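Milestone 3.1: sequence recovery, worked example.
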């Protein structure tokens, strides 16, 4: 069950991750793996115990005005996580390269991932020809298979960015090819349009949340004859229902070589749940092609977890331009070269070319309409492109590379677990049972949870405050959060009857004329937050202080009335 590849990755992953210096990883060359597992378990248990006992133990806050100040909270935070001070280089990078985050006083907690450029880099390059750290995208009418086989390296600018991203992900260009896509959804749809579902009919996905990108893939795959299956997640912690997923993965027909496409994220970008590489290994051993969704991973995890050990057939990730200011960017679809011949030609769209922003502006005047934008830009601005590709710098990627996995992951681990612990201490007053203000879905305090959180806020009567209203009020407080929808939730006999109370219906509108509505989905609408590597303690504290305002029994009603009076959509609470 546990393959050598999985054991090797587990050892590599654990090294240097334990926050407590008392628990050190044994020398892997001399110590048996059982000892490493034992040390890992002790470290994880110790981390959870420290988190639970260090932040105002045995204390609940029932009034938003009574919560400790930022300074007092930070002192408790540092006492619990003394190694947080080791992440000071991140604060220095944030102050030097991303000063707009402090100047704008806006907390960005609504998207996850990594950017390419820094704000400082953009400021310095403004007005310098050929050195703008911004870019445009132009669409290409070409099939995925054709682009992979005959597209070449693209323009010099594309080649430079592609090479830098492949280096950042630690992926060999000898084994994999990359295409740029308009966004994450386009990458998923391209795979669905090209995968040979006629011979490998199954599509198996592992997502605890609704995703526009995944919906696009499922819709396209179903139209092409795929049999779609999905993993389920056990209530209340939303762990994978292992027995059901294993049954779907393990092949029942040993003679059938290719079973289908297994789409797998290592972390949930909504709940923060982490999933074992074991599932990817099991799928490969049972004849599945594997698509690894890396969009929710931390910025250094793809490098340090060594793709060479697992070699997925497809990998999807995305990059935005500048964190906190310009979240637009592009998607990356990376395909194993040995898998390309299996793909089918398709007439889909979604592949893009990357063009310098200044060249893109000029092209709008120069383009005659007889050639594609990319061809016209190449003809008219080749010299400018040469200059740009020679000096292109992806400073954000450079920053992350200089920090390394241990520093980036430790910081996120400390902040997200403190936030989880803090919100669980908020309780409604005047209730004998001290009813919790916040419900968290998925993992709570946990060493290896991801830096994302799904939650709902409840008023003093126990009724949920609509996540859309929470999002609006957060935005007014200069805090950006998201709204998501958890689905495929499985209830055991222990929780029989809870599903009718907890789950709600989410009926999708039909996407195109002539298509039938999707089956309505049952799930849970939630507010979501995600911490990037640039997040700091003040960001987490400000979110906590905002949530604490809902302890005021009049707060929700007053704000609901305010939005109604402003002729905005009334949100029932």
């Amino acid at each position: 069950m546990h393959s050598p590849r999985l054991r090797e990755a587990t050892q590599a992953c654990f090294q240097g991750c334990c926050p407590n210096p008392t628990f050190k990883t044994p020398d892997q060359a001399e110590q048996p793996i059982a000892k490493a597992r034992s040390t890992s378990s002790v470290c994880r248990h110790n981390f959870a115990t420290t988190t639970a006992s260090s932040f105002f133990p045995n204390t609940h806050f029932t009034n938003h005005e009574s919560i400790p100040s930022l300074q007092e909270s930070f002192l408790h935070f540092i006492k619990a996580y003394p190694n947080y001070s080791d992440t000071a280089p991140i604060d220095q990078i944030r102050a030097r390269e991303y000063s707009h985050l402090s100047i704008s006083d806006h907390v960005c907690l609504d998207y996850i991932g990594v950017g390419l450029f820094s704000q400082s880099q953009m400021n310095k390059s403004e007005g310098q020809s050929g050195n703008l750290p911004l870019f445009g995208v132009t669409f290409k009418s070409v099939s995925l298979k054709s682009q992979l086989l005959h597209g070449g390296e693209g323009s010099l600018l594309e080649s430079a960015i592609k090479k830098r991203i492949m280096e950042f992900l630690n992926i060999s260009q000898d084994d994999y090819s990359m295409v740029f896509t308009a966004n994450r959804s386009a990458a998923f749809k391209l795979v669905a349009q090209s995968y040979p579902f006629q011979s490998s009919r199954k599509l198996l996905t592992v997502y605890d949340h609704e995703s526009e990108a995944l919906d696009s893939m499922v819709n396209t795959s179903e139209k092409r004859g795929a049999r779609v299956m999905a993993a389920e997640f056990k209530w209340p912690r939303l762990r994978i229902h292992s027995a059901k997923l294993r049954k779907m993965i393990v092949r029942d027909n040993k003679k059938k070589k290719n079973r289908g496409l297994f789409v797998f994220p290592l972390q949930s970008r909504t709940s923060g749940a982490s999933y074992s590489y074991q599932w990817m290994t099991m799928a490969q051993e049972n004849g599945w092609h594997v698509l690894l969704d890396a969009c929710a991973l931390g910025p250094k995890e793809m490098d340090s977890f060594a793709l060479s050990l697992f070699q997925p057939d497809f990998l999807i990730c995305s990059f935005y331009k500048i964190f906190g200011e310009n979240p637009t960017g592009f998607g990356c679809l990376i395909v194993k070269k040995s898998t390309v011949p299996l793909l089918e030609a398709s007439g889909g769209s979604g592949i893009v070319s990357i063009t310098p922003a200044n060249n893109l502006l000029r092209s709008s005047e120069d383009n005659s309409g007889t050639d594609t934008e990319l061809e016209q830009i190449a003809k008219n601005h080749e010299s400018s492109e040469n200059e740009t590709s020679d000096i292109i710098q992806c400073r954000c990627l450079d920053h992350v590379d200089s920090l390394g996995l241990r520093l980036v992951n430790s910081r996120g681990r400390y902040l997200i677990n403190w936030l989880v612990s803090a919100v669980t201490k908020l309780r409604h007053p005047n209730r004998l049972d001290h009813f919790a203000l916040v419900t968290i879905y998925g993992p709570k305090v946990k060493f290896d949870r991801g830096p994302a959180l799904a939650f709902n806020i409840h008023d003093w009567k126990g009724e949920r405050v609509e996540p859309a209203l929470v999002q609006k009020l957060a935005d007014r407080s200069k805090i950006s959060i998201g709204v998501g929808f958890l689905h495929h939730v499985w209830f055991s006999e222990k929780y029989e009857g809870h599903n009718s109370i907890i789950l709600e219906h989410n009926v999708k509108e039909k996407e195109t004329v002539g298509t039938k509505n999707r089956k309505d989905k049952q799930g849970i609408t939630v507010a979501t937050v995600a911490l990037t590597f640039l997040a700091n303690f003040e960001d987490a504290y400000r979110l906590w202080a905002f949530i604490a305002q809902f302890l005021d029994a009049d707060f929700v009603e007053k704000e609901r009335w305010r939005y109604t009076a402003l002729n905005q959509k009334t949100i029932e609470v």
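Confidence is low (pLDDT under 50) at residues 1-34, 360-381, 509-518. The longest strand covers residues 326-336.
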